[in-house]
Amino acid sequence: MTPRQRWEAVLRGKRPDRVPCDYWGTSEITSRLKRELSCAGDRELWERLGIDKLIHLVPRHPRATEDNWHLQSHFSVWHIGTRTVPYADGLGCYEEAIEPPLAAAASVREIEQFDWPDPGEWDVAGLREQCEAWRDYPLLAGSCELFYLHCRLRGMEQALEDLIVHPEIADSILEHIAAIDLALTRRILDEVGESLLFSYVAEDLGTQESLIMSPRLFRRFLKPRMARMIDLVHSYGVKVFHHDDGAMRPLLPDLIEIGIDLLNPIQWRCRGMEREALARDFGDQIVFHGGVDNQRTLPFGEAGDVRRQVRDNIAIFRDTKGYIVAPCHNLQPNTPTANVLALYEAAREYGG
Description:
Blueprint: H1 3-11, H2 27-36, H3 42-49, E1 55-57, E2 81-87, E3 92-98, H4 108-112, H5 127-133, E4 139-144, H6 146-154, H7 156-165, H8 167-192, E5 198-201, H9 215-235, E6 239-243, H10 252-257, E7 262-264, H11 275-282, E8 287-292, H12 297-300, H13 303-316, E9 323-327, H14 337-350
Parallel strand pairs: 1-4, 4-5, 5-6, 6-7, 7-8, 8-9
Antiparallel strand pairs: 2-3
Helix pairs in contact: 6-7, 6-8, 7-8, 8-9, 13-14
């Protein structure tokens, strides 16, 4: 079976020839793997490791300064400043959002006067060529991360405060983001919807221990707007890939209610995210994606630890609607190559 066929089988509730596996990693570790495994490009790396890579297609924007963004929420287009921050003794770096452009806004009028992006400016026609290039792989395009982007526009502390103190400002910002994402996603789906398996409707609502907002606030500000996006995606016959970090279990029934099809990344070391309980309580309703721990096991464990965890995940999620083996978020550059190899070798060995 091709990588796409494996994912399609899982989404139909069927058993593919083996459990599919996906890859999430920083640019540094991806470059290192290609170098150490003598792979000329990404496709060769996926083939070498037997990865059924979910390909994220991105419509480009003529004013975007980023050239490596895997979603269309280019910070530069939204006037969000960034700076490069090194970590892990210089092994890697990430782009940190700074200078939120709406931090000082004190009224809805100021929000309305902001230079909001025009959803018609993104080049969706270029997606057809990308679809053709990756026809044997599962494809994802279109994204919506309402509060994630709100926090970058407003500053995280102010964005959280707005939900309680300035709800009219929060509503205005979130509604602008939602309208832009809906219009752009509709353009993407009109262009290449028949080629897609997924669109990305995501948030980062969990910390290591709890939610970043109460379920009441989630239902007030985010749930209805996310539901509009999910309904749009489903109207084109496309599934919803939902990414949500951390201890987000209290919101999972609400997310299932509005139609998410797949949950990523299953950070089971976070409070309330135990794999067995997730499989027991929600396994007949959604596909699970991720679950190979990259807080401890992948960067600091041995290859045998990784293999055992992959084996355990496959067993835990075997009787659910479906499971995709993957790291629970991006592999970091301090992860030994031997552990990455062990992850995908174990997926093939135990996933048949």
